[in-house]
Amino acid sequence: MEESCKNVYITTPIYYVNDVAHIGHAYTTIIADMLARYSRLTGANTYFLTGTDEHGQKIAQSAELRGKTPKEYADEVSGKFKALWDDFDISYDKFIRTTDDEHKIGVQAAFQKMYDKGDIYKGDYEGYYCVSCETFFTEKQLVDEQFCPDCGKPTNIVKEESYFFKLSAYEDRLLKWYEENEDCILPRSKKNEIVNFVQGGLRDLSISRTSFDWGVKLPESMNEPKHVMYVWLDALMNYITALGYGTDEKEMKHWPASTHLVGKDILRFHSIYWPAFLMSLDLPLPKHIAAHGWWTRDGEKMSKSKGNVVDPKLVADAYGLDAFRYFMLREVPFGQDGDFSQKALMDRINSDLGNDLGNLLNRISGMSGKYFDFKVSSKDVKKFHQKELDEVEAILENVEEYLYKMQLNRYLEDIWKVLTIANKAIGDYEPWNLMKEGKTDEAMALVALITNIMARVSLLLDSVMPEKIGKIAASLGITINNETYTSLILNKELIADTTITKVEQLFPRIEEVLLEQAKPAVVEKAVAEVKSSKKEEKIEEDDNLITIDKFFETSLKIGTIVAAEEVPKSKKLLKLQVDLGEGRNRQILAGIKEFYSAEELVGTQACVVANLKPAKLMGMISEGMLMAAKDENGLSLIRPETPKQIGTKIS
Predict the structure, then answer these.
(1) Which of 279-293, 406-420, 627-641 has the lowest mean pLDDT?
(2) 90-94, 110-114, 618-622 — which is least confidently predicted?
(3) Cis preceding-peptide flag for 284 (omega within 30 of 0)
(4) How far apart are CA 447 and CA 463, in angstroms?
(5) What does the pLDDT read at residue 4?
(6) How far apart are CA 311 and CA 314, in angstroms?
(7) pLDDT of residue 552
(8) Rounded Cα distance, 182 and 191, in Å
(9) N or C: which end of the chain has fewer CB within 10 A?
(10) pLDDT at residue 553 is higher than 80
(11) Contact 208, 227 (CB under 8 A)
């Protein structure tokens, strides 16, 4: 185990309480839980932190919309996050909330220290502010001179008195840190983006607000009751206030963090603002800031407004928590985006878990029971199978390096290579023939080889699938703990004589009937995917092809545009009233202002996607989408050749 990992402090981002947990939150938390569980197994002094971020204007506005105080709203959503992680058996050491009194005291202590050092000063700020992202942007950064470049929502011009952090003063020190610490940002490709950004020059950072009051107040000594701290200053400090910074600092022994896990959308805050704050506080910097990609659905980032969010609890309940954990960690290389598919999840369960892992345990149980009354002895394994042991050890020698460099899929791929060696050995040596030939010692050595391989794999997979692996370990007669890890993984010893215990099938094959009995919406969709794939199995596979059933899920209708007007302050949008024969007009916002005037559209017909989930653009609801085609010659709406009855379906 690498020296830096003897003291391991792992964090997730603290999740913003503006919505319920989705699969992206689960992904981050499962990765952190895996690292924490593995680190504890190796004997590391491990501390694992997660929690919720609860301040800021967006939370205040969300609470007001629901008729609640900000604290009531934060309590409700934070409670749901904590309940989900507890249900998922996430092994966190602390669940922090930024509304905790100890956190507020710690943040105020940090603010005071940075102020006393001369890194914070008072001034006035004017800029374009995105409430949703809690971020200021320059005019050049805006899309269409108004919209946030990150989330696409309208920004507001904000002018207010503010305290500033001298971020610009830390530009050179940050660049030196990046240069001297090759893996401070993972994957390394993400580090290049950050370095380029900092080399472009840093501006001082506005770190207080006066336009709302839902946040941490400035220290009393500053006598600034109107000001609350910028939500990102407040939030980032959680990583040290959770350890007692500014209050009882006995847990600060865990600092610096070994790994901050974040989504790629908040990497800039963690790899620029946060290390600069730490430099100002004279604290060591984290060893790794690891940024993962987004889980998408149909190629789009999941969001509640798009109606494409995958509920992690529904998936875990339908397929099993351990299978869900394995899929999330194995399916996508860390740092890349991944598109969620129930069919891909089912394939992983049936192939990797059912055929490769579960079936190997069944073979151990079957062979040991049939030939040796479930007794297994390792005394002749090295005599007959040193070649296979060497192959296994050569692979396992390097797997931990993948883990701490966030190459989680490669970690699992190599473990599956070891399972392949075990399954292949059974076919190569044919224990049934060895027994027929009276070569009992050789047959026992083979069964013991497979048992030892499964024991080592179990130790390395316990952090991935703790519940299922616990059953495998019990079946093999071993205990998952540091003593066994040291013996079998570090010292490469063989297990003592053991008795195999039969267990139920751990990863039963998922069939359509089984899934249809479960009935949650996410499973019903998986069934449809499987059925569609079987119907089309004679067609050459192509990820871009869909079935006819999938096509007909989209409702296309002919509509007449009965009114149209320009959307003020927008270069692209027209606001249309479209009659689809429903007894009322649909309001549709269309980005076609550059190609059509409002006047020329009135009274014309267009093809409309009629079953889109309503979306909000520039504060207005849009209830559909016009179909159009665009090339180098411009944009044209798709229209019927001759007038059709309003509401006519397109097929």
Answers:
(1) 627-641
(2) 618-622
(3) no
(4) 26
(5) 40
(6) 5
(7) 62
(8) 9
(9) C
(10) no
(11) yes
Q: Which whole number is the average pLDDT over 239-250? A: 95
String of DSSP letters for 342-409: HHHHHHHIIIIIIIIIIHHHHHHHHHHHHHHTTEE--TTHHHHHHHHHHHHHHHHTTHHHHHHTT-HH
Residues with Cβ within 8 Å of residue 582, at least 6 apart in sequence: 647
Pairwise CA distance, residues 419 & 67, whole Å: 56
CB 52 within 8 A of CB 231: no
pLDDT over 90 (residue 571): no
Q: Are 298 and 308 in contact (CB under 8 A)?
A: yes
Of 536, 637, 626, nearest to 595 by C-alpha is 637
Identify whether the C-beta of residue 479 lies closer than 8 Å to the C-beta of residue 437. Answer: no
Dihedral, CA of residue 26, residue 48, residue 55 and residue 227, to nearest 10: -150
* Cα dihedral value 25, 26, 28, 32, nearest 10: 140
Q: What is residue 640's DSSP assignment?
A: -
Q: Return d(Cα 92, Cα 242) in angstroms, integer.
A: 12
Question: Helices H, strands E: what count in the chain?
Answer: 25, 27
Burial of 406 (0-12, 13-18, 19+ CB in 10 A): buried
Position 114, amino acid = M
Q: What are the contacts of 75-82 at 24+ separation with CB within 8 A?
A: 77/17, 77/18, 77/19, 77/20, 77/52, 78/17, 78/51, 78/52, 78/54, 80/20, 80/21, 81/15, 81/17, 81/21, 81/25, 81/52, 82/52
| Token digits of residue 133 | 């992202």
- Report the distance separating Cα 489 and Cα 481, nearest Å: 11
Distance CA 317, CA 519 (A): 11
Place of tokens 């899920």: 553
pLDDT value of residue 533: 43
Q: What is the rounded average pLDDT of the residues 573-594?
A: 90
What's the whole-number mean pLDDT along residues 321-343?
93
Quick one: DSSP state of residue 134? T
How many Å is the Cα radius of gyration of the chain?
Answer: 29
To the nearest whole percent, how much of the chain has pLDDT over 70?
A: 91
Q: Which residues contact 491 (CB under 8 A, 6 or more apart)?
A: none
- Which of 177, 398, 192, 167 minimizes the C-alpha distance to 291? 192
Under a CB-based contact definition with an 8 Å cutoff, are residues 460 and 442 in contact? no
Determine contact, residues 558/605, Cβ cutoff 8 Å.
yes
Residue with tokens 């990609």, as numbered in its chain: 293
Q: What is the DSSP letter of 575?
A: E
Cα maximum dimension of the chain: 93
Burial of 276 (C-beta count, 10 Å sphere; 0-12/13-18/19+):
buried
- What's 257-274 look like in SS3? CCEEEEEHHHHHHHHHHH
Residue 526 has pLDDT above 70, yes or no: no
Structure tokens at 610: 């009629």
Instruction: Supply 153's token pair.
Output: 């929502």
How far does the chain reach from its first CA to its final CA, in angstroms?
Answer: 62
> CA 633, CA 638: separation in Å to the nearest integer?
15
Q: Which residue spans within 167-276 are E strands per DSSP?
A: 185-186, 205-206, 208-209, 228-229, 259-263
DSSP symbol at 547: -
